[in-house]
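Lecture notes, structural biology module. Today: joint structure prediction for complexes of two components.
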Amino acid sequence: ADPRAVAEARAHQDRLTKPKGSLGALEEVAVRLAGAAGVCPPPMPEPAVLAIFAADHGVHARGVTPWPQEVTVQMVANFLAGGGVANAFAAQAGVSVTVVDIGVAADLPDAPALVKRKIGYGTADLSKGPAMTVDQAARAIEAGIEVARDLVAQGARCLITGDMGIANTTASAALVAAFTGADPGEVTGRGTGVDDATYERKVGVVREALRVNGVTRAGSEASDALRVLAAVGGFEHAAIAGYILGGAAARVPVILDGVIAGAAALAAAALDPAAVDHCLAGHRSAEPGHTVALTALGLHPLVDLELRLGEGTGGLLAHPLVCAAVRVMHEVATFDSAGVTEKPV
Amino acid sequence: ADPRAVAEARAHQDRLTKPKGSLGALEEVAVRLAGAAGVCPPPMPEPAVLAIFAADHGVHARGVTPWPQEVTVQMVANFLAGGGVANAFAAQAGVSVTVVDIGVAADLPDAPALVKRKIGYGTADLSKGPAMTVDQAARAIEAGIEVARDLVAQGARCLITGDMGIANTTASAALVAAFTGADPGEVTGRGTGVDDATYERKVGVVREALRVNGVTRAGSEASDALRVLAAVGGFEHAAIAGYILGGAAARVPVILDGVIAGAAALAAAALDPAAVDHCLAGHRSAEPGHTVALTALGLHPLVDLELRLGEGTGGLLAHPLVCAAVRVMHEVATFDSAGVTEKPV
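The predicted structure, tokenised, for the full assembly:
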């Protein structure tokens, strides 16, 4: 982050016609984005784009979720037809939606909003060995970087992360455990709805995945981060990590959605710690691993409404809040300009 | 609330292409608004209007805030010129802004966005006797009802509460204490920024106000609620209570801002308990009395970002979230219509 822009942003906040600090966490959002962009006020984060990275997971075979795998491809079709919750939230926020096939276990027909970057027909079962080869993970990251680069080239000034992948909270839990050192029991959640027996199995599968792949805790080297991401991640996690890196490289803010994005951001941060400066936590999901990830990333969620849907829905809800925080820096009068008496010190 | 619309809304939520309950608190928002409107899906809460009720307070003389009283009228001018944080947030959310002079201690020039309903040049000092006569309080309520009615007649389909009044968190604390029975020490906060000595004085003033006016705890009769509101409230509290009643009468949702709105909603609820069905808590402010008020009202805040500004800023931030919650009911595909496989029971 640019320390001069940060200092300028803080000083500007204090000149505006409001009590100092009275916008709470939103003041920090504006200051953070000024530091990331290297300019005060930071650019308005509009227009924004949601990229939903869709992929399947070999670990689905272990019964970690009651949802059939084909729901991934069905929901991709639903997004492309405009019928998902993410579509409704995006329409409300004036955000456009791109769906990226990064590894769905089916061939998809062409569609205007679909970007085809399939690395494979779903990952391998992470509880039996590496989910991806290191080469696959690297190619998924590269695809994410390119998606971000292309969207920014087309005019996007804010990137929102989205995901679709039945069983992807299992891979997320494994990634969060690997990158933070937390116990699988602490970071595994009930995803989009599993019963007690399935939950116990899911925790066991995460534990097994870490053991089988020889992952204790990811080291601080990029090569180790890539190995861990390949071993226990998903195609969408790798691609979202790349999308974050691509947004950061373009100095465009990235609003993270829930636990899948949080897990991907941990991988991105391991590859390039400075990338996190460009990230905002859109929301806190109901998944316990998400809170662990956010704490490790040092991010504070903007929305906290017990969502557990994914798709980018939490990131979309946060977008108007981020815009509001930045707009204050552009439009609000100062005590001087408005002739408002300042509080005596 | 209409039980049939509530049941229909819950059933519709469960048919949509998302795991049951996965939109967390936003599902409850949509269900609540269906019940309040008596129709499923509930109407989109657009266009929305923010009404900022501005007034001064005799208790300012007791030194409960470091801000000079003239800041109220200066900020009214700032809102009318479009320079306040509320203006920036409203512009972001596509919400129009109306300022109502319900009791500013100065004469205001005409302006297109200003509604003149002045009841007096500030209230009397609530720590010495009643802040308002019962007649003044009733007229302020009536003004609020009429503002709501007029805005709805002009097309508003969502009303957001706003306030401006230096020292109005002192009256809010007294109202919250009176309507909930909480101790003044529990519900008095630091407002827009007071030091320890001022804070102690402020708590003492609230305690004195309740004692001097013979208010222990407001009874359940409307006449007593009106007496308490007049004794320790402000013109803007009374007007906002009326604005809530007016919105409820028109079956239009009312998004409450912070502690001033929370205190006013307690008065509105005492006058007509069913009015609360039409209210949503936009946010939770940093003021301790606000949390006490929300608990008493049974409302869950949508935004929780440590704002302590007032003006309607917290309500404005919540508006896109409320729209998103309702839009889901109108636009998201069902499992049947989208051909998505439902989770086996």
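Point to remember: The first strand of chain B starts at residue 48 and ends at 55.
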